[in-house]
Here is the input.
Amino acid sequence: MNLKILVFTFFPFISFFSNEIYSQPLTSNDNISLEGKIIDQILIDELLNAPLNTIRSMDDFTGQLIIIEFWATWCAPCIKNIPHLNDLYVKFKDKGVNFLSITYEGSVIVNRFLKRKPINGWVGLDLDKSFIDQLSIYEYPTTIIINKKGEILRELKPNELTAGLIQTYLDSEISNSK
Here is the structure.
């Protein structure tokens, strides 16, 4: 009985600090900027929530922009931002914006998680972290905005991603393609 009291007393303390713990970089990438980098191919092992026979090239994505979020099922800030990203997906899915959430975790863990907390858009599994490492992603969550040419336009946190920001980039890409 004393053990139960200790666990319940200690849990709020852990929960209070969990956002700070999980949002810290795994290693430092302070001097690395992704903006302007070109991505030729999305290097991931498996796609969930995607059409059959999707081969993960830039041509698989229709529209003008790709929003990629790097996340994990254990990451409290990642989980907190899922509803926000789902709302943006609903708002922009028919306006030329693609959403892809990439994790290094396996399909059993991710599918179990998605049953409890669905993610709209595609979910990519980068099991060997080759794509994550190629982009030097060391902090979760991290979001990048990519244009149709594969150029990274912006790197940010998912809570900084707003409908206005997406619309600004979308309008810019549409006007540049004319």
Observations:
- Residues 2-22 form the longest helix (21 residues).
- Strands lie at 46-48, 65-70, 97-103, 122-125, 142-147, 152-156.
